[in-house]
Amino acid sequence: MRAVVIEQPGGPENLVLMARLRHLDRPGRIAAEQLDRFSLADVGGRRVATYSGGMRRRLDIAMSLIGNPPVIFLDEPTTGLDPDARLEVWQSVRALARGGTTVLLTTQYLDEAEQLAGRIAILHEGRILVNGTLAELRALMPPAQVEYIEKQPSLEDIFLALVGRRAAAGAALNDRATSPVATEHRGPR
Predict the structure, then answer these.
(1) Are 112 and 74 in contact (CB under 8 A)?
(2) 20 to 30 Å CA-CA from 109: which of 81, 89, 93, 187?
């Protein structure tokens, strides 16, 4: 489900509207709980039009979860987000899954599927080619070969280290720039 976020009012008004549409008691309390749950309480007084992309995605998820649906569909929830906002959405999705909500997520970012999915279906030209856990899908490939390469930090590593979102990223910048790391290589070159 994808909620429709109204731009002019703030997050609380959007959440209250959704709770009222679902005929739930105490919509104000529900809105406050969702704002806290998705780390939006500090921006609740602002108009949604001023929210960052990550805040909008979290508000969208919060609105979709009003009434505690057992299943939620997220269609490419991190498309167009900066790395910091992307991590925020990933944390929200992980929290939903830990809380017992079934999350069906579509993504074109394969690293996102690796990070978030318990089961993965690979689609090509509208057909499911294979589905299973990440371990099951990896088992379909030839055995891994260990190679040693010098790996430079990615732009995402640099960005996250600079903004302080990954404590280990700063240390990783130093380590990765000078130390070879083991990587997996599968199949012919």
Answers:
(1) no
(2) 187
CA–CA gap between residue 33 and residue 10 (Å, rounded)? 15
What's the pLDDT tens digit per position in 147-165? Answer: 888 889 888 888 888 887 6
At CA 23, angle to CA 20 and CA 27, rounded to 5? 45
Report all structural domains of the chain as residue ranges with CATH numbers, in order of start: 11-106 (3.40.50.300), 142-189 (no CATH)
Residue 26, sorted as left (phi over 0), alpha (psi -120 to 50) or beta, turns out to be left
d(CA 58, CA 127): 30
> Pick from 173, 167, 168, 169: which is nearest to 151 by CA?
173
CA pair distance 175, 177, nearest whole angstrom: 6
Residue 171, pLDDT score = 47
Rounded to whole angstroms, the Cα distance separating 157 from 162 reads: 9
